[in-house]
C-alpha cells in the first residue's frame, strides 16, 4: 500500500522570512545571524525576501514573532538568540518562556516559527553551537514548504 506523503524541501526561492535576533549576548547572536543569512542564500533565498528584526533579548522574541506573523507577509519566522546559564533562576524563566511563547505563536497562527535560541551553560558551548542557525533555517524552510503543500491540498478540488 502506498501512502500520500508530505515532506518539505530546503528551497528558499520565492519564500519570505523574518529573522528575529536578540541583541543580548550579541557576541554569539551576530554570528548566528550571519550563519542564518548565509544558509538562506545557499538555499536560493533572495536578500529582498528577508527582513531582520532586532530585539533586546530572547524574552522579547515571542511577542515580536507573533506581530510579524500577523502581518501575513512571511512564510516563516526564524528566531535567533542565546541564553547562558548564570547563578540564578533567570536562565530557566527566559529559556522556558521564549520556547513556549515561540511555539504558541506558531500553533495559534499556522505560520512556522523556528527556534534557533541557544540555551547553554557556558559561552564555549554557545560558540560550539553556532551552526544551529543553519538548523533553524532548514527547519523554517522545510516547515514553510510542508505548510504550503497542506494548504494547496486543502484548497484542491472537492471530491
Describe the structure.
It is a single chain. This protein has 159 residues and is of the alpha/beta class. It has a single domain, classed as Rossmann fold. 48% of the residues lie in helices and 18% in strands. The protein has 5 helices and 4 strands; from the N terminus they run βαβαβαβαα. It has a 4-stranded parallel β-sheet with strand order 2-1-3-4, sandwiched between helices. The longest helix is centred in the last third of the chain and has 23 residues. The chain is globular and about 60 Å long. The two termini are 21 Å apart. The model has no long low-confidence stretch (mean pLDDT 93).
Give the topology, please.
Blueprint: E1 17-22, H1 26-42, E2 50-55, H2 61-70, E3 76-84, H3 90-109, E4 113-120, H4 123-128, H5 132-154
Parallel strand pairs: 1-2, 1-3, 3-4
Helix pairs in contact: 1-5, 2-3
CATH superfamily: Lumazine/riboflavin synthase
Q: Roughly how many Å apart are the termini? A: 21 Å
Main β-sheet description:
4 strands, parallel
Instruction: Identify low-pLDDT runs.
Output: none
Number of helices, counting only DSSP H or I runs of 4 residues or more: 5
CATH architecture identity? 3-Layer(aba) Sandwich
List keywords for this structure.
159 residues, alpha/beta, four-stranded parallel beta sheet, globular, Rossmann fold, single chain
Task: Write a brief caption for the model.
By secondary structure, the chain is of the alpha/beta class. 48% of the residues lie in helices and 18% in strands.
